[in-house]
């Protein structure tokens, strides 16, 4: 890497540039995990458990068969072979869910199905393929359904192989014992964890709920996909991208259609959304243009005074004014203009992201995703995307502005430990973003990265 001396992080207007790490620390410092609630199992999928769950009863709760076959005494099948089979009297069927069980005595067997309790007297299960299935012929391929041939629950069966004690028997408590720790607090509940909770009889569980994230984009030029474009308009992709990213992070996402560049309309829309938001994300309108209305709109949303505290001076008392949004510039590319604060009577966190598609997505990954994961109550190690070190594979050196941490789209090859750039550095290049699976990080004091240089790579998948 080629380096240059860090530039003075103070533009001519006197407002300092925030570093990426400072801004993220500010965001995470203001976000608290959501309060726990009791949820039905399927509603708890993706949520973080807040209590240790112990096993109330052993699993499985009784000795049961792992095969379809015959429950037998080992002494009765000792030495059995195809030439000299053991001939046993079949005393009945034992199906899964059976209550009253027959007792297997000397010279007897009971037809038994997978998952059925091992009957008294039986010591092992011989698979049906080791027998003639009660037909008097050769090895059976399976059992005849009980409804089709109920008489085969009686008669005789020839067993062609011996079985050791406990063969094909799943012992009571072989999965978990009563009193064992099933799941520890902090566990994210995926399908296997939901299955375990159901298996031990838990119908509900106490978790931190998935955060409700409201995403809205701003801009009079935005048109909803599926509608015709007119002169000077483009399709709204940001709200779709960010809503999808919020879901990917574990949130419940609500996408609001694009809001025109009108402060009153935007203010009203945000106020309407506060009732269903644990976190608000806006995209667009945070730069210095004449039509960047997010700053104007957020200066008084939900506050007790029209002046609010949205001028970013940090002097307002948050106990007096419910809205406190700070608009700042970050030493990063893309995504220099950012806004963050709390809004409304419940001090709902709000992150205002830039409007360029790549800028908004990179900003989401760096700041919004960690906020969502923090709201979920995940441990610090799972709040941020994982990163690795990889060697740059490129045809030429990559340039980077001095004093800015640059995030370039890339494709990461885990087998070779290399990363290759995708597209250019422009913050409008959506197609390049769609083909990237990582972000290459160029530090603030580096202006050129030569091929073969090792870089930090943030993995997006």
Structural commentary:
- By secondary structure, the chain is α/β, with parallel strands linked by helices.
- The protein contains eight helices and 30 strands.
- It has helices spanning 20-30, 74-77, 191-199, 238-249, 263-273, 294-297, 357-375, 430-434; strands at 2-3, 17-18, 37-40, 48-49, 53-54, 64-65, 69-72, 86-94, 108-112, 124-127, 156-159, 169-170, 181-183, 204-208, 212-218, 222-223, 234-235, 252-259, 279-283, 324-330, 332-333, 337-343, 348-353, 387-392, 398-399, 405-413, 418-421, 438-442, 446-449, 454-459.
- Strand 22 (337-343) and strand 23 (348-353) form a beta hairpin.
- The two termini are 27 Å apart.
Quick summary of this structure?
With 461 residues, the protein is of the alpha/beta class. It is built from eight helices and 30 strands.
- What is the number of strand segments? 30
Rounded to the nearest angstrom, the distance between the terminal CA atoms is 27 Å
Question: What is the C-alpha radius of gyration, as a whole number of Å?
Answer: 32 Å
Whole-number mean pLDDT: 87
Structural class: alpha/beta
- Biggest sheet, in brief? 7 strands, mixed
- H/I helix tally: 8
Give the proportion of residues in helices: 10-25%
Low-confidence stretches: 4-14, 302-321
Question: If strands are numbered along the chain, what order do they take across the biggest sheet?
Answer: 2-20-22-23-19-15-18
Tell me, what's the shape? elongated
Q: Strand-residue fraction? A: 25-35%
